[in-house]
Amino acid sequence: MWAIPLLSIACLSLAAKMEEPKVPFLSEFHTKDYQFENKVIQRMELMVLTTLGWKMSSATPFCYLHYFIRKFHGEFETKGLICKAIEFIIAIIKEMSLVDCRPSIIAAAAVLAALNGGLTRKAMEDKIGCISLWGSLQSEHIFSCYSMMVEIEMRNCKTPKFAISPKYWSVDNVIGEVFCSDVSDGGGGGDIKRKLTFNHSSDQNSLSKKICRP
């Protein structure tokens, strides 16, 4: 499917424009199986920016993962812990909008859920007691997110894998791996609120396996 590689290249290009002093040419972005023309990548960049409301510097839960891992788990980080927290974040944003809860709250809940899925309300409050600026309201929101994450994980464990299309499993795995690599290297993730839609009658026909034209 061409959409996922194209979206990945567009996001990488946008990130480079935000972070790199010298931005690579669009022609330098390609994958093993696809090589998109510049105009095609630019169209996808515009779709991503429109979907994000042109808010490229908004904080996401991924920005806070390292901070809360150090607070709740000490200085020692493992890729397994980071990936588990990322899985919880991805799972909960499928169930709720990020505007319903502060990114820092979601990140704290994800780290706690990754560390221990059986915390009581009291145990969780003891854990977050090291955050001096947080009070009872933040504690309530964190526990609410934490409980939802644990519930989602339990529900997923009870769902047979064959009941879910392998196509969607592979996409989730790829997304998780990308976020794991990025966040474990000190980067942040993106805040996607709406799914991109494609006009298959016009866009898909304009793309070929090797050279995709607008």
Automatic annotation (TrEMBL):
Annotated Gene3D superfamilies: Cyclin-like (1.10.472.10)
InterPro entries with a match to the protein in the record: Cyclin, Cyclin-like_sf, Cyclin_C-dom, Cyclin_N
Signal peptide span: 1-15
Domain of life according to the entry: Eukaryota
CDD domains: CYCLIN_AtCycD-like_rpt2
Keywords: Cell cycle, Cell division, Cyclin, Signal
GO terms classed as biological process: cell division
All copies of domain Cyclin C-terminal, residue ranges: 59-182
The keyword Cell cycle is assigned to this record: yes
Name of the protein this chain belongs to: Cyclin C-terminal domain-containing protein
Organism name: Gossypium schwendimanii
